[in-house]
From TrEMBL:
Subunit (UniProt): Homodimer.
Primary gene name: hemL
Superkingdom of the organism of origin: Bacteria
Residues found modified as N6-(pyridoxal phosphate)lysine: K266
Protein name: Glutamate-1-semialdehyde 2,1-aminomutase
Cited SUPFAM superfamilies: PLP-dependent transferases
């Protein structure tokens, strides 16, 4: 069935580590060969053998309005014809910064980079430069990209592959990353008291998405805000997943909590390689060339990437209805899945925030890393492959969020719910 994908994977493994250019794409946690794709439109992916799938990965987040979204494609084509890069300022970078400020009023200044990793890595440097302190606090299972400081108790591919803390990160770097428990303010308080006046920043995924989707408990984010204020620590929201997804203004708007710095990726580039970090003027003023904290990039603010991101963000800004529709579609899917799993007697907890959703096969409420790990990975694996057979493309790991796109039709959602019923029945037997 995946004949061509399997052949390509064999070739890929000879010359590319693990046959993939990013570990989360490998099927290590579900087994089998990754699917190779050749095209997509809306919510339908077509693999190299011509088989079609309903997509719940959305390139891991960017495709909030579906694949090959016309305004994005048009913007990229028109921009490419004028050159793909200048290494000098362009108008679209200014328009982009202005648009982000309109959508997220707390972002006084923003710097474009090329990935979410770069955004988070730079935000940490800025926080350290601003405070003159070395240590950071992150949360177990949160993922902020693959910069050294973050590969300590990380989520996403690192967790899926069983290496949440990577070899190659020096002890010196590791000692400056302190780890707290997601949704547990006491664990943060303890660290701030133990390392008094040493913590430059707390970085958090405001909705955890890299151990599956885990919403913040009531008061958790505002509690972090208060702790940061009390300890003169910079609060960084890593909104690489949640930015422009859980609402127009991201998690800051959804939960009514302002961060000092915020990082973006995924949607901001509409599927092209983009990240960004921004925030309050007084913090951002330390960034080079205004200030002494160095940060740079040959292709940063690349015209193609800016044109694509600008086209997508403009649509989201002008038509906030997209968020209502996404919310409705995700609730519909949630309810349908819940019914199917109940009918077939599966122990399940489904977490959902906006258009992020995760199915955990466990009897426990999933609120943090430890409870996420109680999910039945073997059951997920069987469920995953049954879904794939029926043309439903989910993230190939129990510890990743699914991302819905507003291109999903009611019929596609119904097909998914039906397929989930069949899949769980067969996985349990
Ligand atoms: N931060 C979060 C919350 C992410 O989910 C990711 C990637 O999935 C990153 C940072 C890293 O972004 P990138 O893969 O673009 O480097």
């Amino acid at each position: 069935m995946l004949e061509t994908s399997e052949k390509l994977f064999e070739r890929a493994q000879q010359f590319i580590p693990g046959g993939v250019n990013s570990p989360a794409r490998a099927f290590n946690s579900v087994g089998g060969s990754p699917v190779f794709f050749k095209k997509a439109k809306g919510s339908i992916l077509t693999d190299v053998d011509g088989k079609e799938y309903i997509d719940y990965v959305g390139s891991w987040g960017p495709m909030i309005l579906g694949h090959a979204y016309e305004p994005v494609i048009k913007a990229v084509q028109e921009t490419a014809a004028q050159s793909t890069s200048f290494g000098a300022p362009t108008e679209i970078e200014v328009k982009m910064a202005e648009l982000v400020k309109q959508m997220v009023p707390g972002v006084d200044k923003i710097r474009m980079v090329n990935s979410g990793t770069e955004a988070c890595m730079s935000a940490i440097r800025v926080a350290r430069g601003y405070t003159g302190r070395d240590k950071i606090i992150k949360f177990e299972g949160n993922y902020h990209g693959h910069a050294d400081s973050f590969l300590i108790n990380a989520g996403s591919g690192a967790l899926t592959l069983g290496t949440p803390s990577s070899p190659g990160v020096t002890k010196g770097t590791a000692k400056d990353t302190l780890t707290a428990d997601f949704n547990d303010l006491n664990s943060v308080k303890q660290l701030l008291n133990e390392y008094k006046d040493e913590v430059a920043a707390i970085i958090v995924e405001p909705v955890a998405g890299n151990i599956g989707c885990i919403p913040p408990r009531e008061g958790f984010l505002s509690g972090l805000r208060e702790l940061c204020d009390a300890h003169d620590t910079v609060l960084i929201f890593d909104e690489v997943m949640t930015g422009f997804r859980v609402s127009k203004g991201g998690a800051q708007e959804r939960y009514g909590v302002s961060a000092d710095l915020v990082t973006y990726g995924k949607i901001i580039g509409a599927g092209l390689p983009v990240g960004a970090f921004g925030g309050k003027k007084e913090v951002m003023q330390v960034v080079s060339p205004d200030g002494p904290v160095y940060q740079a990039g040959t292709l940063s603010g690349n015209p193609l990437a800016m044109a694509a991101g600008y086209a997508l963000l403009s649509e989201l800004q002008e038509n906030p209805l997209h968020y209502d529709e996404l919310e409705e579609k995700t609730t519909y899917l949630y309810t349908g899945l819940q019914e199917q799993f109940e009918d077939h007697g599966a122990s399940v907890h489904i977490n959902r925030v906006g258009s992020m959703i995760s199915v955990f096969f466990t009897e426990e409420q999933v609120v943090d890393f430890t409870t996420a790990r109680t999910t039945d990975e073997t059951l997920f694996k069987h469920f995953y492959h049954k879904m794939l057979e029926q043309g439903i493309y989910l993230p190939p790991s129990p510890f990743e969020s699914w991302f819905l796109a507003n291109s999903l039709t009611e019929e596609q959602l119904d097909d998914t719910i039906q397929a989930a019923g069949q899949s769980i029945k067969s996985a349990l037997s």
